[in-house]
Amino acid sequence: MKRKAAFVDRDGILNELIYDEVHGILDSPRRPEQVVLMKGASEFLNGLHELGYFIAIVTNQPGIAKGTLTEQELEAVHATIAGQLRETGGGTWDALYYSPYHPKPGPWGRKDFTRDSNCRKPGPGMLMRAAEDHDLDLDRSWMIGDGLVDVQAGKAAGCRTMLVTKLKISHIERFLDMKDAEPDEIAPNLKAALERLKREGGGA
Ligand SMILES: [Mg+2]
């Protein structure tokens, strides 16, 4: 029987975003020393496994296309996240997919990753690929993330979707008119997200 999956966004769910002073934006950590786990990340992953979900991390990492992040640096960041999880109560994932693409990465962009890709959220490509690789049942699966692209990718793949955000519903409602961006559930944090999945029951 196909397994149900939790597709889990990385930045803003497992690890905090970092403030990039040069560009004045929140960005993905690029070096191990920038990695700070989100509160409750270990418990969240452990809880998903206890409920029987196959956990696939699906993360856009356009820094690779932009030439601001190498594959080696990305691997080091992932190893650091895994290591910090081990040290703070466990929590692992079963598979990890990242999208290195960006349609317009700018002057330092890498041509090999400069394109529109279905494998970049909001496209469902990473989820579809994971489903094929690991025999996952998309109908019984969830996409959980802190961005509307996560919701869009999950819906496009045929999953249910959970947006984890502290923003008030009234503040995000105007964005939710966006086509295919309305989540099935909104949770203020990882603990609440897990509680919602527990209510559904481990056997679902
Ligand atoms: Mg995110």
Detailed description of the structure:
- With 204 residues, this protein is α/β, with parallel strands linked by helices.
- It has one domain (5-200): Rossmann fold.
- 32% of the residues lie in helices and 17% in strands.
- It is built from seven helices and eight strands; from the N terminus they run βββαβααβαβαβαβα.
- It has helices at residues 41-50, 63-66, 71-87, 125-134, 148-157, 169-172, 190-200; strands at 5-8, 18-20, 25-27, 54-60, 95-99, 142-145, 160-164, 185-187.
- The strands form two sheets. It has a six-stranded parallel β-sheet with strand order 5-4-1-6-7-8, sandwiched between helices. Strands 2-3 form a two-stranded antiparallel sheet.
- Helix 1 (41-50) runs parallel beside helix 7 (190-200).
- The longest helix is centred in the middle third of the chain and has 17 residues, at 71-87.
- 39% of the residues are buried.
- The mean pLDDT is 93.
Helices and strands in order:
Elements: E1 5-8, E2 18-20, E3 25-27, H1 41-50, E4 54-60, H2 63-66, H3 71-87, E5 95-99, H4 125-134, E6 142-145, H5 148-157, E7 160-164, H6 169-172, E8 185-187, H7 190-200
Parallel strand pairs: 1-4, 1-6, 4-5, 6-7, 7-8
Antiparallel strand pairs: 2-3
Helix pairs in contact: 1-7
Magnesium ion is lined by residues 9, 11-13, 145-147.
